[in-house]
């Protein structure tokens, strides 16, 4: 069976429900499933109980805001985890995980043996009204630049 990694920055709103449902189903189908995740204030207590025991969860601190040094460190750690697990599939969830993961995917761009990459946004950061036009413009520009990554 396949090795599958899910990468998610936020377990808020419906993302936790969606990722746990997908990961649990894949695990029950016999796949080796790992969830690389962050925990934020809105992450519900007992979130781990939503995953079957066979799903491996790895905590990787990420922050929603753009912070080049922290984002570089997180991207480097994400690369190391993905490289060490050697998955067949990497499924990216949330805007930050999607951005970092698509940048990390460039390391496999010229390799034929790398994983297949998927990005499922569960909300688009550049559409959030609370952020303001400047931030939304930056988020939209980043999404456009990363759209061509695997």
Structural overview:
By secondary structure, the protein is of the alpha/beta class. It contains four helices and five strands; from the N terminus they run E-H-E-E-H-E-H-E-H. It has helices spanning 15-28, 68-85, 95-105, 133-146, and strands spanning 3-8, 32-37, 56-59, 89-93, 116-120. The protein has a five-stranded parallel sheet, with helices on both faces. Helix 2 (68-85) crosses helix 3 (95-105). The radius of gyration is 15 Å and the shape is globular. The model has no long low-confidence stretch (mean pLDDT 85).
User: Order of helices and strands, N to C?
Assistant: EHEEHEHEH
The biggest sheet amounts to:
5 strands, parallel
Q: What fraction of residues sit in β-strands?
A: 15-25%
Uncertain spans, ≥5 residues at pLDDT below 50? none
Which overall shape is indicated by the principal axes computed on the Cα atoms? Answer: globular
Helix content: 25-40%
Overall residue-averaged pLDDT value:
85
Number of strands: 5
Strand order of the largest sheet: 3-2-1-4-5
Distance between the termini: 23 Å
Q: How big is the Rg?
A: 15 Å
Query: What structural class is derived from the secondary structure elements?
Result: alpha/beta
Our count of helices gives 4
């Amino acid at each position: 069976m396949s090795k599958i990694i899910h990468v998610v920055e936020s377990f808020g709103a419906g993302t936790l429900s969606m990722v746990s449902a997908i990961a649990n189903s894949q695990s029950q189908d016999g796949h080796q499933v790992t969830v690389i995740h962050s925990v934020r204030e809105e992450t519900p207590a007992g979130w781990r109980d939503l995953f079957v025991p066979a799903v491996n969860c790895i905590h990787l601190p990420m922050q929603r805001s753009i912070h080049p040094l922290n984002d570089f460190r997180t991207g480097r750690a994400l690369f190391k985890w993905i490289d060490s697990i050697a998955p067949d599939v990497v499924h990216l969830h949330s805007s930050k995980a999607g951005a970092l993961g698509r940048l990390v995917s460039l390391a496999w761009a010229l390799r034929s043996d790398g994983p297949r990459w998927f990005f499922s946004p569960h909300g688009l950061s550049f559409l959030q009204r609370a952020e303001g036009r400047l931030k939304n413009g930056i988020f939209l520009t980043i999404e456009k630049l990363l759209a061509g990554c695997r």
